């Protein structure tokens, strides 16, 4: 785990923060909610077969722990694409109290007291903050979104809101590590087809299988987007290695809830 990461607890709710983000934020774990079965206990996804009342209660508990307005929580719609949406006042509450009317895997906002959330259970969720422009962002990327460089597009959208890439701090949250992310040739082939040589240092062939370093690729994408290396923090937490703490899609064969990366100005 990176030295700037901290394990926090509020009642039964356990989450992680990073010292480099001086705003309210969290990378959640399984612990601290009311869901049952495969989604026990702090499931934050409505598409996992969980009781919606349980999911809403989990959001209320998370909001209380972070000191953020529950009714302003705004969610990504995870479609493994590269769309980045800007959250303005009419969009507040999308996914929780408003219909999910965008296909956005990343959100950017300059609104205060507006928590934005992206989800993970092996995929990479990155939180962004630019202190002078007061803009934040959240970005979900599996290997498909990574290949489409959605993280760089998130930086671009933040820049359109006045942020300077060299001032942005990005924290790469808990996600599957390269040792655990074993694939067949189709994944690296697709990544190379979209990214070219940029993908090569992060794909390693081992026998008949391949291992992809998603965190390393995310950090490289952010550097090429203008972030300073010292402002890119990899949490160093693997969801599959720590599947007793986090849900991992691979560890559970898909029988799971989801965690969230949340940030709020």
Give a structural overview:
This protein has 265 residues and is an alpha+beta fold. It has six helices and 15 strands. The strands form three sheets. Strands 1-2-3-15-7-4 form a six-stranded mixed sheet. Strands 5-6-9-8-10-14 form a six-stranded mixed sheet. A hairpin with a 5-residue loop joins strand 2 and strand 3. It is globular. The model has no long low-confidence stretch (mean pLDDT 96).
- Strand coverage percent: 25-35%
Helical fraction equals 10-25%
Gyration radius from CA atoms, angstroms: 17 Å
Q: Low-confidence spans: pLDDT under 50, at least 5 residues? A: none
Give, in spatial order, the strands making up the sheet with the most strands: 1-2-3-15-7-4
Q: Mean of residue pLDDT?
A: 96
Ends distance: 25 Å
